[in-house]
Amino acid sequence: MRDLKIVQISTNSLPVPPIDYGGTQRDVYYLTEELVRRGHEVILFAKKGSNTRATETYEYPSSDKREQLEFIMRHLPKDTDIIHDHYGIVAKANPPIPTIRNSHSKTVEGVQIPVYVSETILKTYGSNKGYYVYNGIRLSDYKFSRKKKDYLLFVGRVSRMKGVHLAIEVAKKTGKKLLIAGTLNDNANYIEYFNTEIKPQLNDQIRYVGPVGGDKKQELLSNASCVLFPSTWDEPFGLVLIEALACGTPVLGFKYAGAVPEVLGGLPQLLCKDADEMAEKVLSRKNFPTARECRRYVRHHYSDKIMADNFLKLYKRIIRKKEYKLISNSKWNKITAKRSWKRR
């Protein structure tokens, strides 16, 4: 099949790539860069300040979703092969072009072709309708180190569902130093959780270092003896899992936490049933993969190249088999009926 003209729709919350935190936008960045490297034409719609190798980039003119959609419609190339929507505003409008809705969380409804980031979420929340493609990262962006320092690390949102209190429990059981690096949302429930269950336990052994990104995040991930991922909710994927492994650092997660056992499927020794077993594994380190084995695991399963391979296979399958629905009363058609617009 010839090279494709692919439209990538990012969100309007963070630029592509994000400066610090931003899993969805980093996925868009890695995918865009790899598709362009392979000779495909990529048109990106994204937040102001985005900087990629996309063939052409359009920055959203406002924060109004209606205006954003109309802006996309005005600038959409007439010979677009496929639209890859990470945002949702285009997919829900049901354009007369094959369009996938890449869900980086859970359920998506009212779209042509839903695509999830794990098979677990596809089956559990997507009723096994659609597809799944794993997240991928560029290994060269992650600092690798075989030498480790004697501290545990938690990276993620400071919330109950992410299990920060369980990471603290593991640190206490093992006597190990714990660094908590994460964002505290400006939300009453999150703040109450931090003030009542986390802050009172902070001391010289257990420290909250705040949100981290860039070089600071790389240093923490690559130097930690082990990363704790005690999430208790149905994780759609768990990007921290592969980020830690890419740095050569083992990461422990729970067997019941959504896609965590799927992502760590090739390293079952890193899965735990509860905080007690997590603490036992921190102390014993029995059968832990070496630093090089951790990084190799990501290279063979979750690299940006593998992610691009899988999306290209999906794009071509959808285009070849015409696995999409043209909905006559779609939002897209209703908008075009109300105003005249021309594709470039």
UniProtKB/TrEMBL annotation:
Which is a Pfam family this sequence falls into?
Answer: Glycos_transf_1
Q: Which InterPro entries match?
A: Glyco_trans_1
Q: Which Gene3D superfamilies does this UniProt record tie to the protein?
A: Glycogen Phosphorylase B (3.40.50.2000)
Q: Where is the Glycosyl transferase family domain?
A: 145-282
Q: Can you say what this protein is called?
A: Glycosyltransferase family 4 protein
Q: What organism, scientifically named, is this protein from?
A: Paenibacillus gansuensis
